[in-house]
């Protein structure tokens, strides 16, 4: 994506690439239609253009803010909108969402970002193919819909990963399965944290009384809002399902530990009386029965076996042994 890209829309679906260097927003605004200028403000050229573009100080600050959350703020006929899109750049994590800042005014739209955003590429590709928006509101709706389009495969992959984990959950949960589950919960929580504010931002824009926002634009923004709402609800469902899987793993591990503790307790209970008998016969005092009898050792061994068999029978009767 270029440091600075400008398009002039004729209001009838046509779009033409324009040069933004050395020109202000007023210079770019056509008599009919509107202009869209997209700026990468991490570059020196993009930041310099924003400085001399003739922007309202509030808009200039909003377009270059370091940290943003999805929101929509209206100042007269100017709307400041922050949106977020999944990060599909090579080597990046999708949940490390990319911020898109928008300043929308009659006849002019300025967008800014620090990192490339695939949804913007999709919209610009449509412009190059002759499918341009007719109004600034139409452009915002297209961007919001493309952001949702790009997020849907990411949410679908989370669902698939969770489906696989649910099939793998057994009485034994290997560490890699628990690590995969933790990653799914983390990603879904991060995405969800931005989806609900994005829904609120689009809902706010839809109901604002803005002259450049037509009824058709509001309908398309409403559609984008519903798409974002559905994604947010799916992410919430993924988080809840992941919690259920985690509870199952915890229950399985607790049950396995209880069985192991039961076995250890039964073994200890079996050897306790045997240890008591051998301890009594091993004390170094006079009067030990059988001390002078040659077969006394074997008699004691037989007694211990009988006691052990009786205990096993008793534990089985009490259903302490399987």
Could you characterize the architecture of this molecule?
The structure is a single chain. The chain has one domain (4-251): CorA soluble domain-like (Beta Polymerase, domain 2, 2-Layer Sandwich). It starts with a strand and ends in a 5-residue tail after the last helix. With 322 residues, the protein is an alpha+beta fold. Helices cover 58% and strands 14% of the residues. The protein has helices spanning 25-28, 44-52, 57-63, 118-128, 136-168, 175-207, 215-281, 296-317, and strands at residues 4-9, 15-18, 34-40, 71-75, 78-85, 98-105, 108-113. The relative contact order is 0.09.
Short note summarizing the structure:
The protein has helices at 25-28, 44-52, 57-63, 118-128, 136-168, 175-207, 215-281, 296-317, and strands spanning 4-9, 15-18, 34-40, 71-75, 78-85, 98-105, 108-113. With 322 residues, the chain is α+β, with helices and mostly antiparallel strands. It is rod-shaped.
Task: Explain the layout of strands and helices.
Elements: E1 4-9, E2 15-18, H1 25-28, E3 34-40, H2 44-52, H3 57-63, E4 71-75, E5 78-85, E6 98-105, E7 108-113, H4 118-128, H5 136-168, H6 175-207, H7 215-281, H8 296-317
Parallel strand pairs: 3-7
Antiparallel strand pairs: 1-2, 1-3, 4-5, 5-6, 6-7
Helix pairs in contact: 4-5, 5-6, 5-7, 6-7, 7-8
Order of helices and strands: EEHEHHEEEEHHHHH
Distance between the termini: 68 Å
Low-confidence stretches: none
Name the CATH class.
Alpha Beta
CATH H level: which superfamily? Answer: CorA soluble domain-like
Helix-and-strand structural type: alpha+beta
Question: Can you tell me the overall shape?
Answer: rod-shaped
* Count of domain modules: 1
How would a crystallographer describe the biggest sheet?
Answer: 7 strands, mixed
Beta-strand level of the residues, as a percent range? 5-15%
Overall number of strands: 7
CATH topology: Beta Polymerase, domain 2
Mean pLDDT: 85
Strand order of the largest sheet: 2-1-3-7-6-5-4
Please identify, by name, the CATH architecture. Answer: 2-Layer Sandwich
Provide the gyration radius in Å. Answer: 35 Å
Per DSSP, the total helix count is 8
């Amino acid at each position: 994506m270029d440091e600075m890209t400008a398009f002039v829309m004729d209001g009838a679906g046509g779009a033409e690439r324009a040069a933004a260097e050395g020109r202000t927003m007023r210079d770019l605004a056509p008599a009919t239609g509107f202009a869209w200028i997209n700026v990468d403000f991490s570059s020196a050229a993009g930041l310099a253009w924003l400085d001399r573009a003739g922007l309202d100080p509030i808009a200039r600050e909003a377009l270059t803010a370091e940290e943003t959350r999805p929101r929509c703020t209206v100042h007269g006929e100017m709307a400041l909108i922050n949106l977020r899109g999944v990060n599909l750049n090579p080597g990046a994590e999708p949940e490390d969402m990319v911020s898109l800042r928008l300043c929308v005014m009659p006849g002019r739209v300025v967008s800014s970002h620090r990192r490339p955003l695939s949804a913007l590429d999709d919209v610009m590709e449509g412009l190059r193919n002759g499918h341009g928006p007719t109004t600034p509101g139409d452009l915002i709706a297209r961007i919001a819909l493309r952001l949702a389009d790009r997020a849907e495969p990411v949410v679908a992959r989370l669902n698939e990963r969770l489906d696989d984990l649910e099939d793998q959950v057994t009485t034994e949960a290997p560490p890699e399965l628990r690590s995969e589950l933790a990653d799914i919960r983390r990603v879904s929580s991060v995405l969800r944290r931005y989806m609900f504010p994005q829904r609120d931002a689009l809902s706010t824009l839809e109901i604002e009384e803005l002259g450049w926002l037509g009824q058709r634009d509001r309908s398309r923004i409403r559609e984008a809002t519903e798409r974002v709402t559905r994604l947010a609800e799916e992410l919430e469902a993924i988080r809840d399902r992941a919690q259920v899987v985690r509870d199952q793993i915890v229950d399985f591990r607790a049950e396995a530990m209880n069985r192991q503790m039961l076995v250890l307790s039964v073994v200890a209970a079996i050897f306790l009386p045997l240890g008591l008998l051998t301890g009594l016969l091993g004390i170094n005092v006079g009067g030990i029965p059988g001390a002078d009898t040659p077969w006394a050792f074997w008699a004691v061994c037989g007694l211990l076996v009988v006691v052990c068999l009786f205990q096993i029978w008793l534990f089985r009767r009490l259903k302490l042994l399987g």
